[in-house]
Please model this.
Amino acid sequence: MGTGQMMLTIGAFVLLGVIILSVNAGFLTVNTTVYSSRVDIMAVSLANSIIEDAASLAFDEKTVGAAITSTSSLTAPASLGLDGTENRSIVNSFDDFDDYNCYRTNPKLDTILVPGSTSKFIFSTYCAVDYVDPANPDNISSTATYAKRLKLRTYLPGMTDTIRISKVYSYWYFR
Model:
């Protein structure tokens, strides 16, 4: 084999090595994106699950089984959260929307198992409930209104990404 053929062979191996490294880097990027998407989808699903549970409850402690006609009958903004009958660790004991104020899951039992390992992604969620101005739900109200907002943060401890979702829940009474 001549010097020219040897140079062509070495060049072919170098080119093959570059192509293999590029393909492997592409696979790594795709796998990272797939896992990131799975984590984000799971975090959004967990947050939506909590929102749906909260929205299925009464608007306020005072509206459980009864109707009100004035905002002065509602729970004071400083008293939003658990009452004496609810237990923070038993979500089924919650009877109204604002019981989710300061509710947290740490860790959340819903996890994603990483294929090929025993590692799991364990989510944490923190909730806050406030009265908001019905005309502008971005503004927190210092008085009781017919609109409450539940804000959730769902994240993986140690990670920088946080899913933030909010829901405004309004009280409607038809006579």
Remarks:
- The helical segments are 3-55.
